[in-house]
Design brief:
Mean pLDDT: 82
Order of helices and strands: HHHEEHHHHHHHHEHHEEHEEEHEH
Helix content: 40-55%
Distance between the termini: 67 Å
Number of domains: 3
Number of helices: 16
CATH topology of the largest domain: Rossmann fold
Structural class: alpha/beta
Shape: elongated
């Protein structure tokens, strides 16, 4: 236990009192360098798991790798040499007074002791430079504390600095935002690599089946999301079992002609409501920006959700879009200042596409020209569901992965 006193005490009686009444031997230090220093003293000879922490305790565990025995010996030797030189310097600074000896004619040297400092002023605690952390040390600390975002890392750095440990704060402010974000991404990509490999071996329908055996979200009482989804489909004349079969087909077979799912209709008709839970179940590519580098993060995703999507030539070339949806190999541009090659989506990458839009995708060429043939080719890539009925007095409802899985597996016993 570390306790900070606000005034001077008779240390020895207090030490004996604690030992007699509580069986605890306590150690006193004249100077205090903050709570972090006391915390280090408490934890220096114990694994962090054996130290009892109060609820909500700041994450002050050691980040810097402890010095090796050789390094500690070297530091000790250097410290001894520094102290020896300081003693020599002190003797040189002393006032030397010489006088003639009347008895033997030799000189006597009188050493004048330096005056002691006044006790009236309290010595302020020294400001130690924060330890210089290595990226690997910060990476291991983030895994230990479960830190997955830069915002949380900065919050933890502030808490540590507030308690006297400024090492993490120094690391965050002296490294760029890009560097820190890449470190966090690489850290958790490495940490989750085993689970990622195991997940890649699973079929998408098996992943969805795991969600089916899970629990609903807290706000979903008595499968409310499922009841609303069924009601939306039925009110628009869409057969629930046909819709569920289309989703299962896309998940099972991946991108290809007639496999991708598109829901079209006016605003506030429930299009996004039906497909948003995909993001809770799968590692999802969502909402590309309207630039030629919009598809950079598509690689490695399990499904693609183009919510409220509008095709444009700036986002993706029409021909590339057709090839992408058909299941063929396609090359998509990536910024060359970050990547050496374009993004290649191989034929073996079967990521299925789900989309919502106000209408079917229509080819618009130069001068606002239309081409019915191109538009018809696009239609063959999708299984389209058209919704016409707007929802009266819509309310916000949290998506539920368990109810979504229940909806998708309706009628699956009839699959071939």
């Amino acid at each position: 236990m570390a306790v900070s006193f606000t005034s001077s005490l008779r240390f020895n009686p207090v030490k004996k009192l604690f030992l007699k009444n509580f069986g605890v031997s306590i150690h006193f230090k004249i100077k205090s360098y903050g709570y972090a220093a006391a915390y280090k003293y408490i934890c220096k000879e114990k694994p962090i798991e054996e130290v009892l922490h109060s609820e909500g305790h700041s994450p002050l565990s050691r980040i810097k790798t402890p010095q090796t025995l050789k390094a500690m010996k070297t530091f000790s030797q250097k410290s001894s040499a520094v102290k020896k030189n300081e003693r020599k310097s002190t003797r040189r600074r002393l006032n030397l007074v010489t006088s003639d000896s009347s008895s033997d004619g030799e000189n006597e040297v009188t050493v004048m002791e330096p005056e002691e400092e006044s006790d009236g002023e309290e010595e302020e605690p020294r400001e130690f430079l924060p330890a210089k952390l290595k990226p690997l040390e910060v990476s291991e600390f983030m895994v230990r504390e479960g830190i997955r975002t830069r915002k949380l890392l900065m919050y933890v750095a502030k808490l540590r600095a507030k308690n006297g440990e400024r090492d993490l704060k120094a690391f965050v402010v002296t490294h760029s935002k890009k560097f820190v974000n890449e470190l966090i991404e690489s850290t958790w990509e490495l940490e989750d690599s085993e689970q990622s490999i195991e997940r890649e071996k699973m079929a998408r329908l098996d992943i969805l089946a795991e969600a089916l055996h899970g629990d609903c979200v807290e706000s979903c009482q008595q499968h409310e999301w499922l009841r609303c989804a069924v009601s939306i489909l039925q009110s628009n004349g869409i057969n629930v079992y046909v819709f569920a079969a289309a989703i299962r087909n896309a998940l099972k077979n991946g991108r290809g002609k007639g496999n991708n799912v598109l829901i079209v209709g006016p605003t506030t008709c429930g299009k996004s409501f039906l497909l948003t839970p995909l993001q809770l179940v799968f590692n999802t590519f969502s909402n590309p920006s309207n630039t030629k580098y919009a598809w950079v993060t598509l690689e490695g995703k399990e499904v693609a959700l183009l919510n409220d999507f509008r095709w444009s030539q700036e986002c993706i070339d029409w021909k590339d879009f057709l090839l992408l949806l058909e299941g063929d190999t396609v090359n998509l541009p990536r910024p060359k200042n970050s990547f050496t090659t374009d993004l290649t989506i191989e034929r073996s990458n079967t990521v299925p596409f789900f989309s919502t839009s106000i209408r079917r995708f229509e080819f618009i060429g130069k001068g606002n020209s239309r081409d019915e043939g191109e538009t018809a080719m696009m239609d063959t890539r999708w299984q389209v569901f058209t919704m016409t009925k707007k929802i009266v007095n819509p309310k916000k409802m949290e998506p539920c992965r368990r109810c979504f899985a229940d909806l998708v597996f309706k009628g699956h016993e009839h699959d071939a």
